[in-house]
C-alpha cells in the first residue's frame, strides 16, 4: 500500500483535474463563441452548473462502483452488458471524432503562424497528415507520449493564464457590450447555440475520479478535486474567452483560425502573437499525441472485454496497440475528408457538435446508474437521495446539450448509436448466451 507521503494532496489532484480538462479544448473557443457574441457567457454559466453536477456524480461513481472500465462499468449496474458496450462504444467514437477537431485546431494555428492560406481541401489533407504523424510518434510507447505531454501542456496553460490576468489592461467594456448579440438572435436560441461548444471544453471531466487511489482520503478529497477542478477550469475558460471578446472586434474573431494569437498580437505586437501561436501549436499537437494513445487504449481494453474486434487488442513488444492505432487513424482520415467545410471554423464546429452528441450518451448511461450503484453498496439513504438528485440535474443538462447541438449532429449521432446497437447484436452471444446457459444450469440444480 502506498505511504501517505507518496499520495497527492487534494490541491494537487484539483490542479491535475483542471489541466486535463483544459488540454487543447480552449484554443478555438473564442472564434466559435463569436458566432453568438459575448452573450455566450450565459451558456458558460449553464454549462458550468451542468459540468459540476456531472463531476460530482462521476466522483461518487468512482468511489462506490466495484466494476472496472470507467463509464462502461458504471452503466453495467443499470443497463447490463448491452449498456456497458454502448458506453464504451459511444465514448470511443466520441474520442475518435474529438481528435480530428484537435488536429484541425493545430492546422489552423499553424497556417496563421506560417502565414499560409489553406483551401478547405488542403485543411483536410493537412489534418490527415497531422493525425498520422501523431499516430506514428506513439509507436514508441506510453513513456515517450507521457513525457512529451507533460511539457507541451504548458503551451496552452501559459497563454490562457496570461490572457486571464494581464489581458484586462487592454480590455474595452464598450467593445464587449457592442458584441453582446451581434446577430440579434432570440434569447434562448443564443444561449442554446453555444452550449455544445462550451460543453466541448469540459469533455474529459469523467476522468477526474481515475486517480482516486493516488490521493489522500479519497472519499473526502476526490469529490472536492472533481468540483474544484471543474470550477477552476470553468473560471479560466470564462475569463480568458470574455477578455478576448473585449480586446478583439467580434468580426475579426469570426474570421481567424488563431484567436489567442490574434489577441496577443493586438496587445503586445505581432512577435508576441507569433510566439503564442507557436506555443499553442505545440500544446495542441502534444494533446493530440496523448489522446491518440488514449483512444487506442480504450479500443484495446474494449477488445479484451470482447466488445470490439480482436485486432484492436493486439500489442507490439513495448505494449503499444500499433495495429489498432492504424485502423483508428484510417477511420479518422476518412471522416476528416467527409466533413470538409467552407471554413476551418465550420469544420471544427461540425466535429465538435458530433463529438458532444456521442460523448453525452455514456454520460446519460452513467448518470442513470448512480442510484443503483449506491444502493448496491449500501450507501446511507440520505447520501443516495442527494447524489441521485445531482445526477438528475446532470442528466437534464446532458439532454439539453443534445437538443442544443442541432438536428444535423443529432441525426448523425443517432445513426452512430443505432450502428452501435447493431454491432452489439453480432457480439452479444459472447455474453448473453453464456449467461442464459448459466441461468438454465442454476434452474436445473434448484
Automatic annotation (TrEMBL):
Gene3D superfamilies: Amino acid/polyamine transporter I
Topological relation to the membrane, as annotated: Multi-pass membrane protein
Pfam families on file: AA_permease_2
Transmembrane regions listed in the UniProt entry: 9-29, 41-59, 89-109, 121-139, 151-171, 183-203, 224-248, 275-299, 320-341, 347-366, 387-403, 409-427
PANTHER family reported in the protein's UniProt record: AMINO ACID TRANSPORTER-RELATED, PUTRESCINE TRANSPORTER POTE
Source organism of the structure: Clostridium omnivorum
Assigned protein family: Belongs to the amino acid-polyamine-organocation (APC) superfamily. Basic amino acid/polyamine antiporter (APA) (TC 2.A.3.2) family.
HAMAP family named in the record: Putrescine_transp (MF_02073)
Keyword Lipid metabolism: no
Protein name in UniProt: Putrescine transporter
Amino acid at each position: 500500500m502506498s505511504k501517505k507521503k507518496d499520495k497527492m494532496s487534494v490541491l494537487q489532484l484539483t490542479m491535475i483535474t483542471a489541466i486535463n480538462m483544459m488540454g487543447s479544448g480552449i484554443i478555438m473557443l473564442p472564434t466559435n463563441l463569436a458566432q453568438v457574441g459575448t452573450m455566450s457567457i450565459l451558456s458558460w454559466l449553464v454549462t458550468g452548473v451542468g459540468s459540476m453536477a456531472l463531476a460530482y456524480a462521476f466522483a461518487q461513481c468512482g468511489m462506490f462502483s466495484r466494476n472496472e472500465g470507467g463509464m462502461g462499468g458504471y452503466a453495467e449496474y443499470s443497463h447490463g452488458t448491452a449498456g456497458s458496450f454502448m458506453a464504451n462504444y459511444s465514448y470511443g467514437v466520441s474520442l475518435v471524432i474529438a481528435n480530428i477537431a484537435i488536429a484541425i485546431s493545430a492546422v489552423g494555428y499553424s497556417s496563421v503562424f506560417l502565414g499560409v492560406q489553406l483551401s478547405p481541401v488542403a485543411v483536410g489533407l493537412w489534418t490527415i497528415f497531422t493525425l498520422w504523424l501523431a499516430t506514428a510518434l506513439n509507436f514508441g510507447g506510453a513513456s515517450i507520449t507521457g513525457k512529451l505531454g507533460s511539457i507541451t501542456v504548458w503551451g496552452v496553460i501559459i497563454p490562457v493564464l496570461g490572457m486571464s490576468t494581464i489581458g484586462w489592461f487592454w480590455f474595452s467594456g464598450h467593445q464587449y457590450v457592442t458584441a453582446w448579440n451581434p446577430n440579434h438572435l432570440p434569447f434562448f436560441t443564443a444561449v442554446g447555440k453555444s452550449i455544445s461548444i462550451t460543453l466541448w471544453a469540459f469533455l474529459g471531466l469523467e476522468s477526474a475520479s481515475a486517480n482516486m487511489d493516488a490521493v489522500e482520503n479519497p472519499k473526502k478529497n476526490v469529490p472536492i478535486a472533481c468540483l474544484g477542478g471543474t470550477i477552476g477550469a470553468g473560471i479560466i475558460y470564462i475569463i480568458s474567452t470574455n477578455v478576448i471578446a473585449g480586446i478583439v472586434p467580434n468580426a475579426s474573431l469570426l474570421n481567424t483560425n488563431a484567436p489567442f494569437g490574434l489577441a496577443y498580437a493586438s496587445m503586445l505586437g505581432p512577435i508576441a502573437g507569433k510566439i503564442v501561436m507557436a506555443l499553442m501549436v505545440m500544446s495542441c499537437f502534444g494533446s493530440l499525441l496523448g489522446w491518440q494513445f488514449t483512444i487506442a487504449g480504450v479500443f484495446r481494453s474494449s477488445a479484451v472485454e470482447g466488445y470490439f474486434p480482436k485486432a484492436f487488442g493486439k500489442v507490439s513488444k513495448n505494449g503499444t496497440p500499433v495495429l489498432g492505432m492504424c485502423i483508428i487513424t484510417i477511420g479518422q482520415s476518412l471522416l476528416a475528408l467527409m466533413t470538409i467545410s467552407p471554413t476551418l471554423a465550420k469544420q471544427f464546429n461540425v466535429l465538435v457538435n458530433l463529438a458532444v452528441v456521442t460523448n453525452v450518451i455514456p454520460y446519460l448511461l452513467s448518470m442513470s446508474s448512480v442510484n443503483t450503484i449506491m444502493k448496491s453498496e449500501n450507501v446511507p439513504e440520505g447520501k443516495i437521495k442527494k447524489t441521485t438528485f445531482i445526477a438528475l440535474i446532470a442528466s437534464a443538462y446532458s439532454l439539453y446539450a443534445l437538443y442544443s447541438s442541432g438536428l444535423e449532429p443529432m441525426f448523425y449521432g443517432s445513426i452512430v448509436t443505432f450502428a452501435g446497437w447493431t454491432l452489439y447484436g453480432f457480439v452479444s452471444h459472447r455474453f448473453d448466451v453464456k449467461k442464459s446457459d448459466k441461468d438454465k444450469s442454476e434452474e436445473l440444480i434448484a
